[in-house]
Amino acid sequence: MHGASRLPGLRIDHYNLLVPDPDGEGFLGDRASQTAFRELLETARQHHRTGKDPFGKTPSTELGKKEIDLVLVGGDPDAAHLVHLAVEEYARRLVHVVQVFLAQPQWKGVEKIVLGGGFPDHEAGGLATRRAVCLLEHADVDVSLHPLRHDADEGGLLGWVPLLPRTHRDRAAFLAVDVGGTNIRCGIVEHRLGKHPDGGKARVLEVLKWRHADDAPSRNEAVIRLAAMLNGLTAQARTRGIDLAPFVGVACPGQVEADGTLSHGAQNLPGDWEQPFKLPEALAAHLDPIDGNPPQVVLHNDAVVQGLSEHRRMRKTRRWAVLTIGTGLGNASYSNR
User: Which pLDDT belongs to residue 199?
Assistant: First the structure.
C-alpha cells in the first residue's frame, strides 16, 4: 500500500509532523535543516570583523560540503571559527526542535531518535549533532540520539526492506528510489530476508545518482529520467543474473495518500508533484517489464523509509523516531508492537 502504517510487529505512528514556528512564517523544523545551518554560517560571516571573509565571495548556500569540512581539519583558523559558531547555534536549535517535538502527542513516549539525512555524515554536521547530544544530556532530556549506522545515501533504499510485499520476497532483490530536494538515487537492494528475517543484513548492490537540482528539470523530464535510471538497473540486474522482483519502492518528501498522491510537503521536488498527480502511475508507464511482469510501484515518505532502515537496531525500543536532516527536516515516529 502507498503510505502503509502497519507492518508486522511495527506501527508507523506519524510522519511529516508540522509545528508552526512561533517566531517565523514557516515551521519549527526548518530551524534544524541543513539549509538553516548554511544560513547560520552566512550570518556568522556577515558579522566577521577581522579582515577579509575567509570563504571569499561565495555565498554559504553555494559552498561545497567538503569546502566547509576541510576548514575543520587544518584549514584557515578564521574560517574554522565561523563554522564552529554556526555549529554551536545549530546544535542549540536542533535540541530545541527535539524538545518541542517530544512535547507533541505524536511523539509522546519516544525514547530514541535516529538522525539521518546527508548532514550528519559530514564533518560539520557530525560535530553539530554530537554537540546536540551533549546539550540534551545537560538538559536532562530523557531521549537519546543515534546517527544512522550506515551511509545516509543507502538508508532511503534499505528502508524499503520492511515494506517489501510478501508476494515479492521470493525474489532476491528489488529496485528502490530515494527522491530528495537535491538528488535522486536509485538502487538494487538485496533483502536477504531468507537468512535474516529482520532485514538487518540487507545490502545495496548498485546505485545510480542524479543531482537534479543542477538541471532544474520539469516534472515530466524528472519522471522520464528516473524511469531511464531504473530501466538501466533492470538491464544490469539481468546481465548480472540478479533475481529481481517486479517491484519499485519510491521514497520522497511529503504526505503520502493511499491513492499514491502527495497532499502536501513536496515543494522541494522538481515541478508540481502534489494532488492530483500520481507519481506511481506516471513512473510505471515508462518502466520496462521485469521478467515479463510490469513492476509494481509503491510510494512512501522518505523520512519513514530512512527510519525503517534502522528497525533492527530499534526493535527492543517501545517508541522511537527519526529526524532526517537534509534540504528540509523530515521526521517520523514508530511503535514496536
Answer: 84
Q: For residue 17, how far is the Cα from the chain centroid? A: 15
Q: Which residues 6+ apart lie within 8 Å of 330 measured at CB? A: 15, 16, 116, 117, 253, 301, 302, 303, 306, 322, 323, 324
Q: What is the spatial distance between Cα 330 and Cα 30, in angstroms, rounded to a whole number?
A: 9
Q: Where are the strands (E) in the chain, listed by range? A: 6-7, 10-15, 112-116, 144-147, 173-179, 184-190, 203-210, 244-252, 296-301, 319-325, 329-336
Rounded Cα gap, residues 251 and 300, in angstroms: 5
- 187-240 pLDDT, tens digit per residue, is 999 999 988 888 889 999 999 999 998 999 999 999 999 999 999 999 999 999
DSSP 8-state assignment for residue 261? B
Distance, CA of 82 to CA of 46 (rounded, Å): 10
DSSP code for 300: E
| Residue 11 neighbours by CB under 8 Å, 6+ apart | 5, 334, 335, 337
pLDDT at 138: 92
Which parts of the chain sit beneath pLDDT 50?
A: none
**Coil, strand or helix: which one is 5?**
coil
Tell me how far CA of residue 304 lies from CA of 1, 77, 83, 87, in angstroms: 14, 39, 30, 26
State residue 124's pLDDT score: 95
C-beta separation of 28 from 97 below 8 A? yes
